[in-house]
Design brief:
Layout lengths: L1 H10 L3 E5 L3 H13 L4 E6 H7 L1 H15 L3 E8 L2 H10 L3 E4 L6 H17 L4 E5 L3 E4 L2 E3 L7 H11 L3 E4 L4 E2 L10 H10 L4 E3 L7 H9 L2 E6 L1 H15 L7 H23 L6
Parallel strand pairs: 1-2, 1-11, 2-3, 3-4, 4-5, 5-8, 6-9, 8-10, 10-11
Antiparallel strand pairs: 6-7
Helix pairs in contact: 2-4, 2-11, 7-8, 10-11
Amino acid sequence: MNDLLIAARKNKYAIGGFNFNFYDDALGIVLGAYELSSPVFLMASEGTVKFLGVKKIVNYVKQLKEDFNIPIVLHLDHGKNIEIIKECINDGFDSIMYDGSLLDFENNIKNTRMIAELCHDRGIPLEGELGRISGIEENVENIDDVLTDPDSVVEFIERSKVDSLAIAIGNAHGLYKDKPKLDFERLSKINDISSVPLVLHGGTGIPLEDIKKAIKLGISKVNIGTEIKITYFKTIKRYIGTINKNDVRHLISTIQNDIKELVKQYIEIFGSFNRI
């Protein structure tokens, strides 16, 4: 699965990592990728895993893969609970992110390396995080924004054995209070020395031209979560006032369609369309 990110890095496009919360938004995400012939990371937070259950998620995504025949990577986003991570590894997730960003450098490496070994035993790639991405989203709540130190990148990658790296360059989880200011010089330095693909979290709210620039400078995966939720609720709010307000099935299909269109917009920006 990491070959997808390696190809994206080589050809200077990014693959979208989209968070789903239930089956309806998951299908909307996949439909968007399918219509544009794009690979996609279908990302479950620990909250989603607890809500739906690992085996139910894996079985549903397995069916999506059979139905649409595009590269769909089932990814655990911001894994922190070791037991949940192990369950996802053992029961069929395609990719794992371990978030040790709240730990000091040595303990982040220690824990990330341990998870990497578990993942690699199953042929599963691991995404780690160096630096601390601020903001609040799901089980992520960081007040301080600690930008990734380029001088620590090579050591972290070599010792932790990660396959991709989430970095902090001014991006944040959730909604931005002010216009985000990405540190492109820092990104360029990191990309020059990194042996693995780089990941940008907190894509919702970053100006589209900045996302494009970040991809040119080495970002290979961009995560979008908050905007999926916003679209979900906006669709419900708009739908309540319509003539079909009592038709639950039509509501769900409308949610799926709106999320599909959102995902397609991002895929166009990321440049991952027609990559299959």
